[in-house]
Design goal:
It comes from Mycolicibacterium celeriflavum (Mycobacterium celeriflavum). One of its GO terms (molecular function) is oxidoreductase activity. This is Nitroreductase. By secondary structure, this protein is α+β, with helices and mostly antiparallel strands. The protein has a single domain, classed as NADH Oxidase (3-Layer(aba) Sandwich). About 35% of the residues lie in helices and about 10% in strands. It contains eight helices and four strands, in the order H-H-E-H-H-H-E-H-E-H-E-H. A four-stranded antiparallel beta sheet has the order 1-2-4-3.
């Protein structure tokens, strides 16, 4: 596929046909995705390919606490898990939330657990008084490359992070060393529906000239 077509049609895919995702196709996806940039070209990324049903059910269990809070905050009119807005929902209300049984971690052909070695990232924002973001520059380009490559192969997936709220449990389940952070869980499979047009804000609404409050970038 044309590169721009792939970029414009790589949607979040959560429903799958059940068609197989062979190892050779998955290897080809990762073989191309690995050329994503990373800080100092240190390439601290690791991927755990999870197909085992029991392991995936355990990952779903790890995602439930974070998902409950997410749903509870949405219902309360809050921005879920937002670092600038503390949660105003009490623990009892959060615990009472019923999480939908359908999960892409269950129905996908494979779940990729993407990790990054914290020993090789440069977190320039670690002393700032806000949530850290910069270390993600060494892993999320790789994550997105996986989704782009999957789209090119006729597959799809979605970047999920709810289970990372319970990262120690995920580490223990998959034998991940303490110096690695879990960056994403990517369920992959053949999409039930392949979107051909995504809706996004125009460039003039997201890009300005010279300053944050500068004039919009438009031709």
């Amino acid at each position: 596929m044309d590169l721009y077509s792939v970029m414009r049609t790589t949607a979040a895919v959560r429903e799958y046909t059940g068609d197989p995702l062979p190892d050779d196709v998955l290897e080809r996806i990762l073989d191309n995705a690995r050329f994503a940039p990373s800080g100092g070209n240190r390439q601290g990324n690791r991927v755990i390919v999870v197909r085992d049903r029991q392991t995936r059910e355990a990952l779903i269990e790890c995602a439930i606490p974070g998902t409950k809070r997410y749903i509870a905050q949405l219902r309360n009119g809050e921005s879920p898990w937002n670092p600038l807005s503390p949660c105003r929902v009490d623990a009892q209300t959060i615990e009472a939330v019923n999480v939908p049984d359908q999960s892409p971690l269950r129905t996908a052909e494979a779940v990729l657990v993407v990790c990054v070695d914290l020993g090789v990232v440069a977190a320039f924002d670690q002393h700032l008084d806000r949530v850290g973001l910069i270390a993600g520059a060494s892993v999320y380009p790789f994550v997105w490359n996986i989704l782009l490559a999957a789209r090119n192969e006729g597959y799809g997936g979605v970047l999920t992070t709810a289970a990372i709220a319970e990262e120690p449990r995920v580490r223990e389940l998959l034998g991940i060393p303490d110096n690695y952070a879990v960056a994403a869980l990517l369920p992959l499979g053949k999409p039930v529906r392949q979107l051909t047009k995504l809706t996004r804000r125009p460039v003039a609404e997201i890009a300005t000239k010279e300053r944050f409050d500068g004039s919009p970038l438009r031709t």
